[in-house]
Amino acid sequence: MAATPAPAAPPTSAGEPWLFGRGGSPAPRTGSGRGGHHALSGLAALLFDRDGTLVEDVPYNGDPALVRLMPGARAALEAVRARGLAVGVVSNQSGVARGLLTREQVEAVQRRVEALLGPFDVWVVCPHGPADGCGCRKPAPGLVHAACAHLGVEPGRAAVIGDIGADVEAARAAGARGVLVPTSVTRAREIAAAEESAPDLLTAVRELLAGRWAPADGSRADRAPTDRADAGAARTGGAPKGGALKDRAPADRTPTDPAPTDPAPTDPAPTGGIG
Ligand SMILES: [Mg+2]
Ligand SMILES: [Zn+2]
User: From CA 194, how far away is CA 210, in angstroms rounded?
Assistant: First the structure.
């Protein structure tokens, strides 16, 4: 009787994403979240981009031996799991469509990531190419929608952490919160357009877990109105469509807009014991 599946992502003419999940019927994660962490303001799930966010970006990598964690990834995941939030991965893997990757290779890399970081509640992978017009390839919202549906989490109670603009745009388009953790390949305009960013993965997670989180409806009680006035204005009236902020000039931002993140405190050994 509990077989009612979570609503799937909207169907696309170009095919569906690959979903690898644990458990058949997840309990809805709504309200104040699991474990009674009211300070989380309803944050129920964290979704991570894979390449350039959890692990180093090796283009079209199908070799588990080449998987290397990004700094702080292990500590970040430990912190999220300690708070009882669901964790997932949303990843574009256009190498499949390009004939450079097989599903078996994608799964092998996935297993290696889990060996290093522990299990994720859901993986959702877009195997399509940019020209396929699918609804799942970020910045489209399909991966985020599918992950949230599997987890039983409303997108408004999920956050996506990624290293490029497409990640945060996918989050916005899905109604989730997007946090950018730039790398050397992140474009300056993507950094400028990001409403939220952090210098590294652990800082991003700590900001979210510390309550610097707001539902996607635009309320941001944890920040002073003058703190990020441009972001607040952008949120008013609903979630922007994907790409809506892509072409915003930096001048659109408040000149006094502070750095989006507080200075990271010195952390003990964020990379843990895995070399
Ligand atoms: Mg990436
Ligand atoms: Zn796709």
Answer: 20
Q: Please give the angle made by the CA atoms of 204, 85 and 142, to the nearest 5 degrees.
A: 80
Question: pLDDT value at position 14?
Answer: 63
Homologous superfamily (CATH) of 18-24+33-252 is HAD superfamily/HAD-like (3.40.50.1000)
Who contacts 5 (Cβ-Cβ below 8 Å, separation ≥6)? Answer: none
Give how far Cα 74 sits from Cα of 200, 270, 272, Å: 12, 7, 7
Q: In the prediction, which pLDDT does 22 show?
A: 81
Q: Which of 49, 121, 163, 200 is catalytic?
A: 49
User: Which one is catalytic: 51, 121, 167, 200?
Assistant: 51
103-117 and 73-82 helices, crossing angle to 10°: 70
247 noted as active-site residue: no
**Per-domain boundaries in the chain:** 18-24+33-252
Q: Is 132 a catalytic residue?
A: no
Tens-digit pLDDT profile for residues 175-208: 999 999 999 999 999 999 999 999 999 999 999 9
Q: What parts of the chain have a pLDDT lower than 50?
A: 1-4, 6-12, 24-25, 27, 30-40, 215-275
